[in-house]
Amino acid sequence: MTGHPTRAAEFIALPQRAAWHDQSLWFVRAKRDKAAKAIPEWESLRDAAAAIKAHTVANLADYLEEFERNAKKLGAVVHWARDAAEHNAIVLKILSDHNVKRVVKSKSMLTEECHLNPHLEAAGIEVVDTDLGERIVQLANERPSHIVLPCIHKKKEEIGELFHEHLGTDAGASDPQYLTEAARGHLRDRFLKAGAGLTGVNFAIAETGGFVVCTNEGNADLGVSLPPIHIACMGIEKLIPKAAELGVFLRLLARSATGQAITTYSSHFHGPRAGCELHIVLVDNGRSTVLGQDDFRRSLNCIRCGACMNTCPVYRRSGGHSYNATVPGPIGSILEPARDPAKHASLPHACSLCGSCSDVCPVKINIHEQLLIWRRELVKKGLLPLTKRWAMSIGSAVLQRPWLYQMVGGMGRMALKLLPRFLVYSRLNPWGKQRELPTPPKQSFRDQFKARHGK
Amino acid sequence: MASSRDAILATVRAAKVPQAARPEPFRAGIRYADPLKQFGESLAAVGGKMIVAPDADSARAQLLENPLLVPGKKNCSLLPEIIAPTFSLDDIADPHEVEDVWLAVLPGEFAVAENAAVWFSGRRLKHRVVPFITQHLVLVVPRDQVVNNMHEAYDRLKFGTVEFGVFISGPSKTADIEQSLVIGAHGARSLSVVMLG
Fold first, then answer.
1. How far is residue A411's CA from residue A393's CA, in Å, rounded to a whole number?
2. Whole-angstrom Cα distance, residue A355 to residue A346?
3. Each residue of A203-249: pLDDT tens digit?
4. B119 vs A144, A244, A279, B112, CA distance in Å?
5. What is the per-residue pLDDT across A170-212, written as a single tens digit (0 to 9) for each?
6. Considering only CA atoms, which of B26, B158, B193, B109 is closest in space to residue A268?
7. Mutate to test the interface with A, among B1, B12, B27 (most CBs of A within 10 A)
8. How far apart are CA A298 and CA B35, in angstroms?
9. Residue A308: CB partners within 8 Å, gap ≥ 6?
10. Residue A226 to residue B129, Cβ atoms within 8 A
11. What are the extents of the domains in chain A?
12. Of A259, B66, B147, B186, which is most buried, counting CB atoms within 10 Å of its CB?
């Protein structure tokens, strides 16, 4: 199986494009900084959010029951799914029971995680992703490369071509205003024809039995306010105890994600519309296992803002698709191995341990520390790639023997001086890729020390 | 076999997560010397327009300065003293019939200075799709109903009696194509907030 380095190599094969991707995301990161600095209490907000999450997960079973009770009181139907397959079966059954053939979906990373679309499509149901970025990647037959900016990897010219093919826009047109207007018309039609609307959930409130969905485009609201059925799918970690705590999270979410003070629409749903149905699907899919792991529990705090991706030097330069995961970037490199360590074994290594992700995380997840712990876990599971395993055992053998260390050091300095370029910068030495190795010092540190102290 | 519900709850309980106290409600939210002025600035930053009007006549006159808001097309209004509706929402059974609404004029309960959000509750609205499907939206908020921040906002809200409520901050927008901001993604293409009184 190809890992992150191989896929990242494909991405950086086009250096200008990689640089453009890096700049686009850094621009978003800079907007986040500006928004955070405009709020003097920013750091205490992050502390509060982390404390609320810690309290919630410590009492999660009680809060889930409270949420279910209150949601039912409001007239919602509450479903529970242990895994992705059960989630997909529940959604399909609701749709089949009502003979729904067309569904509009607003952004939901959970349904991506469960691969809901292919499941519904196999049953003859048309699923339309309505977030503009998600619609673009859906038309391109791709997956989102970022959880908040799904098509950040695409150039407007490529989107123009895609729209020309699928929506009949003018050939060669690439003006964002024009393309967005075309998508608006195209998706209005789908909104009006849909038999059900699907959304994710940003926050669910135990105290009230309601939930909040945040969008800038208004697609969630259009999607669920026309058809008679609303299905909301949520991971069990989306709960918060009280409505008042939404203040903390809504203030953090959009500022961290895009540098906005709040998303355009923050919709609060409490029960179905008159004469309509509201279904809430609570999904575990591995979350309760992570809950039991002291080292990784805090990863359940994640509110999916994407700030860790925007700031990550590896993500920015390797692109979201190089992670081959539903959630890419730093937090994805924790969440995805938890679900399938073998498949995602390369991800915890796609990190320089710089810690910038932990610094921007609005709910204070110790992301870079967890990535380091994951590397140890992968060693224990025997999932370290062969090259790394060799390098580690050689390194360990050398570092345990001072005489060997001295000898190898001398050989290294000699080799760098004498060997021809093509040997030093060969495929055997990844450190020589895209960078010049330093000029070797004439003496080792040990020799210099001895010389200065005269013994 | 245990139900999925029971199985999930059992695993969650078995996780034995260390107890952590629920923190005190957050009270340190930012405050502004002039929340109304701050709201206007926040709204301008998200592409909306604030109109301060002492009464309905003034509000109407200022709104009509924007040619897009000129009535005559299909208008939905819960504030006839400002803009007269061209039809009654209560006569409509199927929300799909409002797809061609041009202008909606709706009451907002209060506004939030820090982020230009206006709380709109579905309480008086038969079809909640209206503020999203309309091409242009006007929200009318009592001028003295501006809070500083989201903590003060949630102090005012009680949930459970109305099925729907939404904070709206500016017109619908997207930046999904190369981070270029485009106003008018799926929802309203423009938002005017009238501060009345």
1. 19
2. 18
3. 999 999 999 999 999 999 999 999 999 999 999 999 999 999 999 99
4. 31, 15, 25, 8
5. 999 999 999 999 999 999 999 999 999 999 999 999 999 999 9
6. B158
7. B12
8. 37
9. A315, A329, A330, A331, A356, A357, A360, A361, A367
10. yes
11. 4-8+289-380, 39-285, 386-453
12. B186
* CATH code linked to domain A4-8+289-380: 1.10.1060
Strands B190-196 and B136-142: parallel
Task: State which residue of chain A sits closest to B190, comparing Cα positions.
Answer: A264
Under DSSP, the state recorded for A245 is G
**Beta strand B164-168 pairing with B118-121:** antiparallel
| Segment A117-120 long-range contacts (CB within 8 Å, at least 24 positions apart) | A119/A88, A119/A91, A119/A92, A120/A88, A120/A91, A120/A92, A120/A95
| Torsion sign, CA atoms B157, B163, B169, B170 | negative
Token pair 């020589």 is found at: A432
Is the domain A39-285 a CATH 3.40.350.10 member?
no
**A246-265 pLDDT, tens per residue?**
999 999 999 999 999 999 99
CA nearest neighbour of A49 among A371, A373, A298:
A298
| Cβ distance of A243 and B150 shorter than 8 Å | no
Q: Are B182 and B174 in contact (CB under 8 A)?
A: yes
d(CA A449, CA B99): 81
pLDDT at A313: 97
**Is B153 within 8 Å of chain A by CB?**
yes
Provide the Cα torsion A213, A216, A219, A221; round to 10°.
50
Tell how strand B103-107 and strand A277-283 pair up: unpaired
Q: Which two tokens stand for residue A11?
A: 């991405």
Q: What does residue A215 show for φ and ψ, rounded to 5 degrees?
A: -145, 160
The length of chain A, given as a count of residues: 455
CATH architecture group of domain B4-196: 3-Layer(aba) Sandwich (3.40)
Q: Is there a contact between B187 and A81 if contact means CB atoms under 8 Å apart?
A: no
| E strands, B78-162, in order | 103-107, 110-112, 118-121, 136-142, 146-147
Q: Which residues of A touch B180 (CB under 8 A)?
A: 156, 176-177
Let me know: does B118 contact A264? Beta carbons within 8 Å: no
User: Which residue of chain A has the CA closest to B182?
Assistant: A177
* Amino acid at residue number B53: A
Instruction: Look at the alpha carbons of A379, A336, A211, A264 in this order and tell me if their dihedral is positive or negative.
Output: positive
Q: Are domains A4-8+289-380 and A39-285 of this chain identical in fold?
A: no
Tokens of A78: 């509450």
- The ipTM estimated for the assembled molecules is 0.97
Rounded (to 5) percent helix, strand, coil in chain A: 55, 10, 35
Domain boundaries, chain B: 4-196
Both structure tokens of A277: 């149905």
User: In what helix (H) or strand (E) does residue A35 lie, and over which residues does it extend?
Assistant: helix A15-37
Q: How far apart are the first and last CA of chain A?
A: 54
Could you tell me if A70 and A208 are in contact, meaning their C-beta atoms sit under 8 angstroms apart?
yes
